[in-house]
Design goal:
The complex is a heterodimer of chains A (about 450) and B (about 100). Chain A has about 450 residues and is an alpha/beta fold. The longest helix of chain A is centred in the first third of the chain and has 20 residues. Chain A is globular, with a radius of gyration of 24 Å. With about 100 residues, chain B is α/β, with parallel strands linked by helices. The chains are: A alpha/beta (about 450), B alpha/beta (about 100).
Chain lengths: ~450, ~100
Amino acid sequence: MYDAIFIEEHDTPSVTFVFEHFQNDAMSAASSRGMPVIRFVPEAIVSECTVEETIDKAITAVFDGVVAALTKPLTAEEKSPKPREPENPPRIVFKGSLEEVNRFFYQRGWTDGLPVIPPTEADVAEMLTGTDLPPDHLVEKLEPRLGKATVEMIAVNAVMAGCLPTYMPVLIAGVHALADNPVCGMMAASTGSFSPFWLINGPVAKDANIRSTYGATSPGDIANASIGRALGLITKNGRGIRKQIEDMGVLGNPGKYTWVAAENEENSPWEPFHVDQGLKKEDSAITLMFPQSFQQMMPFGTDDKGLLATIVGSIVPARMGSFGVLLTPTNAASLADAGWSKKAVMDYIVKNAVVPDGYYKRLGLDDSKPFDRGNVVITGTADKGVILVPSPRDSEPARVFVFGGFGSWMGFLQGGPPPITRKIELPKNWAQLVKKYKNVVPNYLRY
Amino acid sequence: MNESYEVLSPWAAADPKPLNGLSPRLDDLAGKKIGLLCNNKRAAPLILDVTERLLKERYPTVQTSTFDARTFSVSALEPDRKQEFEDWIKGLDAVIASVGD
């Protein structure tokens, strides 16, 4: 829709084909760019369809509509759409019991389906102790809706998600990361069900008890659980990306509930990731990635040869986007002990991840066509056959992160744009905040 | 459990956007130059192949010109091609876009 609007703004009539199940998404995209009356033609072709007969039939069926969209005179509303009222919801939006608040929020599409903590004035005020910024400070306007993610809006969603005030600096930096690259909004809405994966680095991780070790991304830690959840609610309530309205993820992704880990810096043999991204080791940082999927593999062997073979052998030729290797401290140490730097590992992956000879032909496919549309430089160059090709969009298509407990399992993040890293600014009262909330940890009874 | 909670709205405020109307439509497609905008989704070029064939069957004097986006959206994600995109639009009477979704 964005291109159609650009074309209309250049005094040229346009019409866009839209899959019939995607009309809400198309209308939201058009409204977000100030042209809610854009003309589109619904058709019955599912996203990524390659069956020519199906496409022929579907386009033939709607072709009269295409002609009409370009020739039928404009209505008064299409010539000059009526201005819309500003969306300024009342600050206090409801009063009721825990159950009533939850039902009210859920029925307005403001939750992720799980119960929320009621964001009362008192709880939001406590959340705001986690930042020096005033409540009305505008952190970002989030595309496509351009909802104003103010400090207070972030705090309200943080309370709902169950956050502690020590997570506010993380959330504010996270919101900046969400706005850094326009592709992030598209990822959140994509049919590919890309999910944000948040990696935390620096002192904030320990201060706020963000788990970096065993089961870092599994349930059970308030920080890992609620930080990702709050940023998901902000995506919904600020960015305006709601399931099957704007978020057209076909299969969905459990990572959208929350997917957060701190890097296991103290057990990594290498510099932490935020240092790779140009920050200082003593800085705190949040990194945003948007993988489609998370795969775990037991390595062929736990020496450097076995680990590298497992990584390279797990990269599927037709995959798309960035590739992330999740190494346990054990596996990272094994590579480092054999002389591998992180950069050398990344370079090895890029160099050796190649499409096996005859791969597509064996699958009965025409290998003259590009299968990786996420990597536009792959065809017609000397790099043909290389799966992960550095490009201006992504100079390091394979990256390495160290987290998790001591063990041999390996993880791979598949897809999405390059990581975005933002420095986390801590408030002046940080030491007091940490002291106040540091002991909020589970104390498991033994049996 | 019967405690009452007065709660703040999580839904972000948003400024009204200035709304724009559409460009005037054509009286007829015959003899016109129609742009076919194709993004990088797999269905997009196949949709436009059929569209071009149907266009030319119905309007034999129509001319077409295709622009292949490298991404989902030229205007949003390909700033280096903005001028090329604008120049392409300038030479057209109308555009049919296929975004593969």
